[in-house]
Specification:
The complex is a heterodimer of chains A (333) and B (312).
Chain A: E1 6-17, E2 20-32, E3 37-41, H1 48-56, E4 64-71, E5 74-75, H2 81-91, E6 92-95, H3 99-102, H4 109-118, H5 125-138, H6 144-148, H7 157-170, E7 175-179, H8 187-203, E8 207-212, H9 215-221, E9 224-229, E10 232-238, H10 239-244, H11 249-256, H12 295-299, E11 305-307, E12 310-312, H13 317-320
Parallel strand pairs in A: 3-8, 3-9, 6-7, 7-8
Antiparallel strand pairs in A: 1-2, 1-4, 4-5, 9-10, 10-12, 11-12
Helix pairs in contact in A: 4-5, 4-7, 5-7, 7-8
Chain B: H1 2-28, H2 33-38, H3 44-53, H4 60-72, H5 86-121, H6 126-137, H7 141-155, H8 169-203, H9 206-213, H10 218-256, H11 261-270, H12 274-302, H13 304-307
Helix pairs in contact in B: 1-12, 5-8, 5-10, 6-8, 7-8, 7-10, 8-10, 9-10, 10-11, 10-12, 11-12
Classes of the chains: A alpha/beta (333), B mainly alpha (312).
Chain lengths: 333, 312
């Protein structure tokens, strides 16, 4: 068996909030194989971005992390200074949600793009520029030479996100972390940017963790999809089956709550409000909002287990399969 | 280029306006220049003659134009107190004050911005810098002057207590060291606090996280992404600080008995020497405007968003 590019095992993260440690991720385990794309879906606050930031070791100082994050077999969490820098330079690259905030506004686009390549000191400025110009061509930015001299505020959000993608690829990473790369863009450019990212990733057979709240989008660009709720992974399966035959009530609820274009049926939101990982009850994290909740669900937290080639964290997965519906669910008092 | 022209024109308009205000205010002040010039035993006739000779009987506006015309050529008339040209009195004193302010400016730059950088790079230094700057910001210049003289001139006699030297440059610097520190301390503390806030705000920005995530070392992150961005507001504050030093030098020169522009201003006011007061006031205004204009230009060079005429 080949070593996975990324293997997260039992990751537990707590962050200090007003002198108190709050859980943000609980017992998260994920693997991404070579050239595989894993979608990570969930509502805001479910811990998707925290997972990505944990992989990069970019959590705020004071965070407490246990478990392991193996990148090509080496634990990122115990890496020393130089190894961590090398991992961030050559191993992994991240595409952030808001390019306008994540690119230094007072430095030129050229400066931002070549910064990563020039870090080694083995490449000349001219070579680095030639490389990023061809990358800008690839992400569909014409007139690349002129763009290098421009500043971020002179580019539209869509162009800036392409610049971010080019910057991520410039370091030739083995793993790409895309944190809601199209959420901050307007709808018309979302599709273009997503198509470019998908195409370039496949061409380079890069492994990717694709974070989104959009289950359809995740299914479209990923091989497998993991669903997250309140800092816990509740279901992992291949993209096609998770989309059509979800096992966990929450995933079904997510699918039901999508607004469908032109559909007569109104989207059904899941009753109740999403909880934070720090508010999670001792039992199943979804118990409060689940119409199929039992005594056992409230007292015992279900672990992620295999059902039919997929992973699901639900006590009643087999019994409920194919029957889950939120149609009759009431808003809890 | 257009920005440069705009700054220069703005500066000129400011100088012109303030020159008018200075002239008008001092013309309206009590005391008659001709009476002072004529001396104690003058007859009304001699006073009239003197007023005529110096153009003091002319209408207000033409006196202003005459004065401004002279000022542009460095001719500020004659001192009512010393009966020699104002320019010849100011020339040696300007050098001394300029040196004092430059020295204070360097101290502020090194202590103020230096400690802010240190506190941002090494969080452990944050507390001492906060306490130290909080303490010094509250010490008025004349108190700082007294304490510094007590400690470094009287107790350990590293520096002279009073006066200036006309000797070598090192000797002059030696005489100006304590005054410069007295002038600089509270401003340095102020600049330290502003710079620290600016750098800390910048260090928490998302793009800094991007840089860190790309594998830049902490010092590269700081140099390339925190310092440059954080410097933008610091430049503005530093410009205002230097301008404030020009005014602050009045107090320090008095306290240390330095014969510079500031102490001469106080002396001239006491002697009702309006010509000297006007000249010094105008020079201070020009210094202030020039420094602010330079700060504006640097700001413009540092921030590309300002350059393309866009707000944030």
């Amino acid at each position: 068996m080949t070593t996975p590019v990324l293997a997260i095992e039992h990751l537990h993260v707590e962050l200090p909030v007003r002198a108190e440690m709050r859980t943000v991720l609980h017992d998260v385990s994920l693997t991404i194989g070579p050239s595989e794309a894993l979608g990570l879906v969930g509502e805001s606050g479910s811990g998707k971005s925290m997972t990505a930031r944990s992989i990069m070791r970019l959590l705020s100082p004071g965070a407490s992390t246990t478990g392991t994050i193996l990148f090509e077999g080496v634990d990122v969490l115990t890496m020393h200074h130089d190894a961590l820098l090398a991992f961030r330079r050559k191993g992994v690259a991240m595409i952030y949600q808001d390019p306008r905030a994540h690119i230094n506004p007072v430095r030129t686009i050229g400066d931002f793009l070549t910064e990563g390549i020039l870090l080694d000191g083995s490449v000349s400025t001219a070579e680095a520029q030639a490389k990023v110009i061809s990358l800008l061509d690839e992400v569909g930015i014409p007139d690349a030479k002129r763009r290098l001299r421009q500043y971020p505020h002179q580019l539209s959000g869509g162009l800036l996100q392409r610049v971010m993608i080019a910057a991520a690829l410039s370091e030739e990473p083995r793993l790409l972390l895309a944190d809601e790369p199209t959420t901050a863009l307007d709808v018309t450019t979302q599709e273009e940017v997503m198509a470019i990212l998908d195409q370039l990733r496949v061409e380079r057979s890069l492994a990717m963790l694709f974070i989104t709240h959009d289950l359809d989008l995740a299914a479209a660009v990923s091989d497998r999809v993991a669903a997250m709720y309140a800092g816990v992974i509740i279901e992992v399966g291949d993209a096609a089956s998770l989309h059509t035959d979800s096992l966990h009530p929450y995933t079904v609820g997510l699918l039901d709550s999508r607004p469908e274009f032109g559909a007569r049926v109104r989207a059904r939101p899941i009753p109740g409000r999403p909880i934070l990982a720090s508010e999670a009850p001792p039992g199943c994290v979804f118990a409060e909002r689940c119409p199929y909740v039992t005594e056992r669900c409230r007292s015992e937290r279900p672990i992620l287990r295999e059902v039919d080639g997929r992973l699901v964290a639900c006590h009643r997965a087999e019994e409920l399969r194919g029957t889950i519906s939120f149609a009759g669910a009431q808003e809890p008092r | 280029m257009r920005q440069l022209a705009r700054t220069v024109v703005g500066a000129l308009i400011t100088i012109l306006t303030s020159s008018f205000i200075v002239f008008a205010a001092l013309s309206a002040s009590p005391g008659n220049a001709a009476t002072i010039l004529a001396g104690n035993r003058a007859t009304p006739k001699t006073i009239k003659e003197i007023a005529h000779r110096y153009g003091l009987d002319q209408p207000f506006l033409s006196r202003y134009v005459h004065w401004l015309g002279g000022a542009i050529h460095g001719n500020f008339g004659i001192s009512l107190q010393y009966r020699v040209s104002v320019a010849s009195l100011l020339k040696p004193r300007i050098g001394t004050t300029f040196m004092l302010i430059t020295l204070a400016g360097i101290i502020i730059l090194v202590l103020g911005i230096g400690s802010a950088i240190a506190a941002t790079r090494f969080p452990r230094l944050g507390m001492p810098v906060t306490i130290g700057s909080g303490l010094f910001i509250a010490v008025p210049t004349f108190v700082a002057a007294l304490i510094l003289v007590e400690l470094f001139a009287l107790q350990v006699s590293w520096f002279p207590v009073l006066g200036t030297s006309s000797g070598s440059i090192t000797d002059r610097l030696w005489h100006l060291t304590l005054p410069a520190f007295a002038l600089a301390l509270s401003w340095a503390a102020f600049v330290a606090q502003i710079s620290r806030a600016s750098l800390r705000g910048e260090a928490n920005r998302e793009h800094v996280q991007t840089a860190r995530g790309r594998g830049l070392t902490e010092s590269q992150v700081f140099r390339r992404h925190v310092l440059r961005n954080g410097a933008i507001p610091i430049v503005t504050v530093f410009g205002l600080t230097i301008a404030g030093l020009v005014a602050g030098s009045v107090v320090v020169e008095q306290a240390f008995g330095i014969d510079g522009i500031g102490s001469f201003l106080v002396q001239s006011v006491a002697a009702k020497d309006t010509n000297c007061v006007m000249a010094i006031a105008l020079i201070l205004v020009v210094c202030f405007v020039v420094v602010t204009a330079i700060a504006d230009m640097v700001y413009w060079l540092l921030d590309p968003r300002v350059r393309s005429g866009l707000g944030r």
